[in-house]
Amino acid sequence: MATCSAPGKVFLFGEHAVVFGKPGIAMGIKPRVFVTVRRGKNPPRVNSPYIENCFEQTGVNGSAYIHSQLPSSSGLGSSAAVTVATLSAINEEYNLGMDRSHIASTAFKIEKKVQRGRASPTDTFVSTYGGLVLVKDNKRRILPPENLSLVIGNTMVSHKTAELVGMVGEFRRSNPHVVDPILDAIEAVTIRSLHNFHNQKTLGRYMDVNHALLEALGVGHPMLTRLVTAARTSGAYGAKMTGAGGGGCMIALCPKRSKSRIAKAIEAAEGRAIITSIDTDGVRTEDDS
Ligand code: MEV
Predict the structure, then answer these.
(1) What is the best residue among 12, 13, 19 to mutate for testing ligand 1's pocket, by most ligand atoms within 8 Å of CB?
(2) Pathway, per Swiss-Prot/TrEMBL (predicted)?
(3) Dist. CA 153–CA 263, nearest whole Å
(4) Which of 34, 48, 111, 112 is disulfide-compatible with 67, CB 3.0–4.6 A?
(5) Mind listing the pLDDT tens digit for each residue in 80-134?
(6) 120 CA from centroid of ligand 1 (Å)
């Protein structure tokens, strides 16, 4: 038996724009998914296509048990975390010798297959390596970690990433002169934020701007507006939706001492709050004893 766990992710800046080759910044976050794999002769009897595909791709049989701290379908990369943790646990249990890069690329392949062509290579990368990750020229690179205090607000409104990405693509095809400057502005905010990680007030201001630009792309939602407003008015440096939008989650950058006040304000606005910070471990093996 082997247990591995993998973190979730948030986009700090640049979601949607990355789909068009612009830069983005994502971060591994503390809530994790834990997967225990046991050997077995029979094919796995699980009702997760991600887990089924992990066994199929690696050519072994066994069963898997998931324990998740991450809400699903909320933009926090829970399916990537399940896939990465399962592959890693299979790797441990069967001594397959896969390194992290092999796990990340296989997990992306599985996500693409299960999600019928549209998957985020950022989700599987961040879940495998953790840390702060810069997406640039469609490649991903780990940046020095930053100690940001974040509160996540889950709207509990489920969303479909593929539909939202398709919608933005369609908006751009039909209105390039309107959409391209918005994507350029998101790029500018992302690049400037890289120089302002130590100036959290400015970083928060950039988050507010990025949120407004995402709304301009059409991926806002009234519940996101409500939670973002609640976070800002209760003392956050800044707040924005994270991930595909249209529901899902928002993040607030908070002064350390105000995290619980901001979390309470998000809950009072009918969101589910998670107080979090950076995860720098990525996928890891847990002690089963
Ligand atoms: C979804 O978490 C982020 C998007 O930018 C899609 C992607 O990066 O693949 C909307």
Answers:
(1) 19
(2) Isoprenoid biosynthesis; isopentenyl diphosphate biosynthesis via mevalonate pathway; isopentenyl diphosphate from (R)-mevalonate: step 1/3
(3) 8
(4) 34
(5) 999 999 999 999 999 999 999 999 999 999 999 999 988 999 999 999 999 999 9
(6) 6
Ligand 1 centroid–CA 243 distance in Å is 6
Residues 188-205 have pLDDT tens digits of: 999 999 999 999 999 999
Range(s) for CATH 3.30.70.890 in the chain? 151-276
**Is 76:6 a contact under the CB 8 Å cutoff?**
no
| Alpha carbons 229 and 286: distance in angstroms, whole number | 39
Model-level pTM? 0.96
Which homologous superfamily is 151-276 in? GHMP kinase, C-terminal domain (3.30.70.890)
Which of 218, 228, 114 lies closest to 171 in space, CA to CA? 218
Angle of CA points 57, 24, 222, to nearest 5°: 95
Fold of 2-146: Ribosomal Protein S5; domain 2 (3.30.230)
- Beta bridge partners, 286, equal 3
